[in-house]
TrEMBL record:
It comes from Actinomadura vinacea. Residues 207-308 form the Asparaginase/glutaminase C-terminal domain. SMART domains: Asparaginase. Residues 4-189 form the L-asparaginase N-terminal domain. Its EC number is 3.5.1.1. It catalyses: L-asparagine + H2O = L-aspartate + NH4(+). Keywords: Hydrolase. It is an enzyme of class 3 (hydrolase). It holds the Pfam family Asparaginase_C. The active site is at T12, T87. This is asparaginase.
Length: 356
């Protein structure tokens, strides 16, 4: 008999509507009962543990790290771990759990877009799919995944792409690695699993802020982040990773001061690259990390984990941006998010640098 552990953390799947809005309150054992109407396998024993009962927009990095520690502790004791979670930050929590996960035990997050008891509730079906996937041999060695709307998404690259749609998740440019539905569990691909970056116990991560780019944005938010004690910043850049002249200049100052800078794209799909003079090309040449096709939110966690790994308890010193970028790049190459040609620095572009 296979043994799964089901960890309940809250989210819409465990909410009911009421005066003042939705609130978490449904016990995880009740969620399991509802899922069992969609799937019940007498050969699988599910052990339920209540971890937290919150909506995920109120969760913190410290909460996610505590969850990662619990998952690590339980990994040897079960054939699979399923976590019910809010969808708003699921892409970040899945990614962070992946940064800390080193065993073959599958870890599967799921949730719902509609509350418990809704006539069209998606929670029971999503949870049933997550349990089926976790109990199947196919999930072993796939690291951390998200089960939603009959599809299984890899933690690296998964994004919430719908605010209300039942098909709430996608991994643009990557696609689902399996389907789980009436036709059974059907794996199509296996995600590349980098070595865990977060080893040992971490109660929190260094502060890293995301600064978005928008028409005419100046460097005010970047300066505020620095004043607030940010140990790194991620630019959610235009297109292929560009920033306004003011932001670019402020990022170059940060790099000179020893603060790591990562660049991601606000577009939602595709890699970033140092193509444009006075913007991405300059940032890239100055040692900013170009974070492959990671979302700004996943890039933020990668940067924070790398800063933590480089400078436990210290401020790192002058070449911190270079060391952090190197560590992130080798992780991104292992994750298939960056070409191996980028390992020692920015990949040489064959295209001529475009003058802005
Ligand atoms: N669908 C959901 O779960 C959204 C909810 N606000 C949460 O993240 O907890």
């Amino acid at each position: 008999m296979r043994h799964l552990i089901l960890l309940g953390t809250g989210g819409t799947i465990a909410t009911t509507d009421g005066p003042g809005g939705r609130r978490v309150g449904v016990p995880t054992a009740e969620l399991l009962e509802a899922a069992n109407t969609a799937w019940n396998d007498s050969d699988v024993r599910v052990e339920v543990r209540e971890v937290r009962r919150t909506v995920s927009f109120a969760a913190t990095v410290a909460d996610a790290l505590a969850l990662a520690a619990e998952v690590r502790e339980l990994s040897g004791a079960a054939d699979g771990i399923v976590i019910t979670h809010g969808t708003d930050t699921m892409e970040e929590v899945a990614f962070l759990l992946g940064l800390a996960h080193g065993s073959g035990t599958p870890v599967v997050l799921t949730g719902a877009q509609r509350p418990y008891g809704d006539p069209g509730a998606d929670g029971p079906r999503n949870l049933a799919a997550a349990l089926r996937w976790a109990a199947s041999g196919a999930a072993r060695g796939t690291g951390v995944t998200v089960a939603f709307d009959d599809r299984i998404w890899p933690a690296v690259g998964v994004r919430k792409v719908g605010s209300l749609a039942l098909a709430a998740f996608a991994a643009p440019g990557r696609g689902p690695i399996a389907h789980v539905d009436e036709a059974g569990v059907r794996p199509h691909a296996r995600p590349l699993l980098p070595r865990p970056l977060l080893t040992g116990r971490h109660d929190d991560l260094p502060r890293v802020d995301v600064v978005p780019q928008y028409l005419g944005s100046d460097a005010t938010a970047l300066h505020a982040a620095r004043r607030a004690g940010a140990r790194g910043v991620v630019i959610a850049g235009f297109g292929v990773g560009n920033a306004t002249p003011e932001t670019t200049a402020a990022c170059l100052d940060l790099l000179r001061e020893g603060v790591p800078v990562a660049v991601a794209s606000r577009t939602g799909e595709g890699p970033v690259l140092g193509l444009y003079a006075g913007a991405s090309a300059e940032l890239s040449a100055a040692g900013a990390l170009f974070a492959g096709d990671l979302s700004p939110w996943q890039a933020r966690l990668l940067l924070a984990a790398s800063v933590a790994a480089e400078s436990p308890g210290g401020d790192g010193g002058g070449d911190l941006p270079a060391r952090v970028a190197r560590r992130c790049r080798s992780w991104l190459v292992e994750a298939g998010a960056l070409s191996a040609a980028c390992l020692d620095g920015p990949a040489a572009s064959t295209a001529p640098v475009t003058q802005v």
